[in-house]
Design a protein that fits this description.
The protein is an alpha/beta fold and about 325 residues long. The protein contains 14 helices and five strands. It has a five-stranded mixed β-sheet. The longest helix is centred in the C-terminal third of the chain and has 27 residues, at about 255-280. This is Putative nuclease HARBI1. GO terms for molecular function: hydrolase activity; metal ion binding; nuclease activity. Its cofactor is a divalent metal cation. Belongs to the HARBI1 family.
Length: about 325
């Protein structure tokens, strides 16, 4: 009897030895608290938002992203949002962003996707087209005060967001006219450079007018839901009763003044895209994750762009002056 027990114990010990021989021991890396160890300007340089702004966003999405327990040294919700912002701010490889917070690259990938989708779901709250008569009136008055163009409610344009090659048979539909892979993103902004509408699902080969013709905002204008309000676009768009573009030939003084006003008004969307891409360099460097996750990152960064404007955040290229 004792011999049988001894043989069983030896067998179990052998199995455990074989099972554990090649197991890689778990390593829990140090996870610094960047809210405490970084000064304000250093924090903005690395995450593109100030500490109060990050905490504001954190409070909005915390119920959706935090883990129910702290078992297995779970990543906290604050660490999750900082990792995602670091990815937006640098466009680095996932392994670099993971090392920045102290997690494996697979954890970094899942976390960035989770946080991006949580922020993107705030789109209806922070990216809103004017709806009430008061909102429409205020938006039109602000455009006229700054650009001297009457009845304007928004400026529309498209910009290309660079991505890595998605591979497969359909990869070439993402290649744009400048010969790199991208998403062609349509946006409408107001005079304060805030996005009030965004469409981020089209491949880089899609033409600006095609995106507009298939957008919900076009239907709203054609149904008369925006009254006599106008959109301002560039020459990529056909002229419509509610969409005006610059005249190709301005022969009279009135036509020249019209073109000057159009140029001043369109400057809003050009500046908006400029600030948007300076704040989140990943949009220019290139989004290097799976193409199915790109749309949520584009919308999430647009939401953060609007939040930054609401909170009067510093434009990124001014951050360097804080040191002097």
């Amino acid at each position: 009897m004792n011999n049988e027990i001894s043989e069983d114990e030896d067998f179990v010990e052998l199995i455990n030895f074989i099972a554990n021989e090649h197991r890689i021991p778990r390593i829990f890396r140090q996870r610094p608290d960047y809210f405490q160890c970084l000064r304000d300007f250093e924090f903005v340089e690395r995450f593109r938002l100030s500490k109060p702004a990050v905490l504001y966003v954190h409070d909005l999405i915390r119920p959706e992203i935090e883990h129910p327990t702290d078992r297995n040294f779970a990543v906290t919700s604050r660490q999750m949002i900082l990792m995602t912002l670091r990815y937006f701010a640098s466009g680095s490889f996932l392994v670099v962003c993971g090392d920045f917070v102290g997690v494996h690259k697979s954890t970094a990938s899942r976390t960035i996707t989770r946080v991006s989708r949580a922020i993107a779901r705030l789109c209806s709250k922070f990216i809103r087209f004017p709806e009430t008569e008061e909102e429409i009136s205020v938006t039109r008055q602000e455009f006229y005060a700054k650009c001297k163009f009457p009845r304007c409610i928004g400026v529309i344009d498209c910009t290309h967001i660079k991505i890595r090659s998605p591979g497969g048979e359909d990869a070439e539909i993402y290649r744009n006219r400048k010969q790199y892979f991208s998403f062609n993103v349509q946006a409408i902004c107001n005079s304060n450079l805030k996005f009030i509408n965004i469409v981020a699902r089209w491949q880089g080969s899609a033409h600006d007018s095609t995106i507009f013709n298939n957008s919900a905002i076009r239907g709203q204008f054609e149904r008369g839901e925006m009254g006599d309000s106008l959109l301002i676009g560039d020459s990529e768009y056909p002229i419509r009763p509610f969409l005006l573009t610059k005249l190709s030939i301005a022969s009279t003084r009135a036509e020249q003044l019209y073109n000057e006003s159009i140029i001043r008004t369109r400057n809003c969307i050009e500046r908006s895209f400029g600030v948007y891409k300076r704040r989140f360099p990943i949009l220019s460097v290139g989004i290097n994750i799976h193409v199915s996750k790109v749309e949520s990152i584009i919308v999430a960064t647009a939401v953060l762009h609007n939040i930054a404007i609401d909170l009067n955040e510093i434009v990124p290229n001014i951050v360097q002056k804080w040191k002097t």
